[in-house]
Amino acid sequence: MFSYTFQWKQAFAKLPLMLDGALVTIELALLSMAIGIVLAVVLTGFRLSRIRPLVAIVTTWVEIARNTPALFQIYIAHFGVASFGLHLSPYVSLLIGITFNNAGYLAENFRGALKAIPDTQTRAARSLGMNPIQAFVHVVLPQMLRIAFLPMTNQMVWAILMTSLGVTVGMNFDLYGVTQDLNALTFRTFELFALAAVIFYVMTKIVQIGARLIAARLFRY
Amino acid sequence: MKMLLAATALLATTGLAQADKLDDIIASGTLRCAVVLDFPPMGFRDESNNPQGFDVDYCNDLAAALGVTAEIVETPFPERIPALMSGRVDVGVASTSDTLERAKTVGFSVPYFAFEMAVTANEKSGVTSFDTMKGKVVGAVAGTYEAIALEEQVKAWGEGEFRPYQTQADVFLALSQGQLDATVSTSTVAQANVKSGNYAGVQVVGKAPFDTDYVALFTNREEYGLINFLNLFVNQQVRTGRYEELYGKWVGGEVPNLTVPNAYR
C-alpha cells in the first residue's frame, strides 16, 4: 500500500532551517528546566513548611501538572489566559506550559529524593546550631539534588520533546514548527519528519550522555 | 497439470499487480476521501456530528460516478499526505491548493474549486484593509495557501508577526480574543465564520491581493488512470451544472471560473 519515492536531497536542503529550529528548542528546554528547578525547590520548601495554604498550593500544582496532558497545559497557557485578556506570544505560552509541567514533576522527584535522606541529618544540622532554613539549604538540598539528578535528566529529555506541542499555539520557529511549515510548503512529509526525529534523538541522546558524564565527575564518593 | 496450475497462478498474480488504484476502488466498492472537517462551508460537522459541506457532497458525487459508496475520512490539513501515502484514503477532496512544489509529491486533478482571499480583522485592531495589516500580529491555518502567502508577505513587510495555528477554529478563537489582529482566509470561510456568531468582535474588512487560489483533487502521483478519471469528473460536474448547484447550496453568489484564461491545461 505504501507507495512513495523518498527524495532525501530535497529534505537535506532544508537542514539548516531545521537546525536553527533545533537551537530554539534547546533554548526553550533549558530555560524551562532552569525556571522549573527553582520553582520545584520552592514547592518542596512549601511542602516541608507544613503550612496549610502553602501545602495546598503544592498539592494543586503537582496534581494538575502530573494528571493532565501537557498539551492541555500549554493550550491553557495560550487560549485559556487570553480569555481573561492576557495575551502571551506562542513562545512565552509554550515556555510557561512546559515550565509548569517540569516544576510539578520535579517537585515529585524531589519529594522522593528527600525520603532517601534520613531525618537524622536535619536533626544533626539543627543541633549544630543551624536554623531550619539553613539546615535545608546547606545539608538537605545538596543531597536532594544529587539523588534527583538523573530523574532531572529525564525531565530535560521530556522538556525537549514537549516543545513539539508548541504548534498547537501557533509556534513556528522551534524544530517541530519549522518542520511543519516546510511540510506544508513541499508535502515532503516523510523525509522532513524523519529528519526531525533524528535531530530530536541526537539532542536527547547528548543530554543523556552529558548528564551521565557530569554525574560520574560530580558524584564520586 | 502442474504447469497449467503454475501458469494460472502466474497470470493471476500479474493480473493483480497490474490493477491500478481506479480498479482497486471499483473492486473494493468504497471510495475513501480525505476531507477537512474544520473548514466550513467546504467541510464541517452538523449538530448531529455528521460530515457536511461542499467537499463532502463532492466526494459523494464522485463515489456515485464510480458506482461505489463514499467514506469520508476526517483529515486535518497537515495530515493529508500521510493519510494518502499510508493508504488510509484514496483521494483527497480537501480544498488543496495545486502548487508546483506540492505537485512534485502528489498528483493533482484540474481545479475543482477556486477561492478568493479575504481579510478578517478584530474590530479593536485598527486593521481596515490588507495594507493596514503591516506591523500587526496576523495568522492563518498552518499548511494552507493563504498561510504560505501571508507569511511571505509579513517577511516582505519586515515588521509584524505571523502565527500559524493548527485549525481554522483556533485562528478565529485567537482573532476574537485579540491574540491576532487579523487573518487572511478564503472569503467563503471568512463569511461562514463571521455569520456563525461564534466569534464576537470580528468582521471581514476586505479582499487580500493574492492570486486566485485554485484547489484540486489529489491522489498518488503515478495513478494516471485515476487522475484521468478525476479530470473528466471535474469537467462533468461543471458541464452538468452540478458544480453551480453545489456552489449555490454551500457558498452562494457568483460562481468562480475554474479555467485560467489564455492557458492550456
Automatic annotation (TrEMBL), chain A:
<dbReference type="InterPro" id="IPR000515">
    <property type="entry name" value="MetI-like"/>
</dbReference>
<comment type="similarity">
    <text>Belongs to the binding-protein-dependent transport system permease family. HisMQ subfamily.</text>
</comment>
<keyword id="KW-0813">Transport</keyword>
<dbReference type="GO" id="GO:0043190">
    <property type="term" value="C:ATP-binding cassette (ABC) transporter complex"/>
</dbReference>
<feature type="domain" description="ABC transmembrane type-1">
    <location>
        <begin position="18"/>
        <end position="211"/>
    </location>
</feature>
<keyword id="KW-0812">Transmembrane</keyword>
<protein>
    <submittedName>
        <fullName>ABC transporter permease</fullName>
    </submittedName>
</protein>
<keyword id="KW-1133">Transmembrane helix</keyword>
<keyword id="KW-0472">Membrane</keyword>
<feature type="transmembrane region" description="Helical">
    <location>
        <begin position="193"/>
        <end position="215"/>
    </location>
</feature>
<keyword id="KW-1003">Cell membrane</keyword>
<feature type="transmembrane region" description="Helical">
    <location>
        <begin position="156"/>
        <end position="173"/>
    </location>
</feature>
<dbReference type="Pfam" id="PF00528">
    <property type="entry name" value="BPD_transp_1"/>
</dbReference>
<dbReference type="InterPro" id="IPR043429">
    <property type="entry name" value="ArtM/GltK/GlnP/TcyL/YhdX-like"/>
</dbReference>
<keyword id="KW-0029">Amino-acid transport</keyword>
<feature type="transmembrane region" description="Helical">
    <location>
        <begin position="22"/>
        <end position="43"/>
    </location>
</feature>
<dbReference type="GO" id="GO:0015184">
    <property type="term" value="F:L-cystine transmembrane transporter activity"/>
</dbReference>
<dbReference type="InterPro" id="IPR010065">
    <property type="entry name" value="AA_ABC_transptr_permease_3TM"/>
</dbReference>
<dbReference type="InterPro" id="IPR035906">
    <property type="entry name" value="MetI-like_sf"/>
</dbReference>
From TrEMBL, chain B:
<comment type="similarity">
    <text>Belongs to the bacterial solute-binding protein 3 family.</text>
</comment>
<dbReference type="GO" id="GO:0006865">
    <property type="term" value="P:amino acid transport"/>
</dbReference>
<feature type="signal peptide">
    <location>
        <begin position="1"/>
        <end position="19"/>
    </location>
</feature>
<dbReference type="GO" id="GO:0030288">
    <property type="term" value="C:outer membrane-bounded periplasmic space"/>
</dbReference>
<protein>
    <submittedName>
        <fullName>Amino acid ABC transporter substrate-binding protein</fullName>
    </submittedName>
</protein>
<dbReference type="Pfam" id="PF00497">
    <property type="entry name" value="SBP_bac_3"/>
</dbReference>
<keyword id="KW-0732">Signal</keyword>
<dbReference type="InterPro" id="IPR051455">
    <property type="entry name" value="Bact_solute-bind_prot3"/>
</dbReference>
<dbReference type="InterPro" id="IPR001638">
    <property type="entry name" value="Solute-binding_3/MltF_N"/>
</dbReference>
<feature type="domain" description="Solute-binding protein family 3/N-terminal">
    <location>
        <begin position="30"/>
        <end position="254"/>
    </location>
</feature>
<dbReference type="GO" id="GO:0005576">
    <property type="term" value="C:extracellular region"/>
</dbReference>
<keyword id="KW-0813">Transport</keyword>
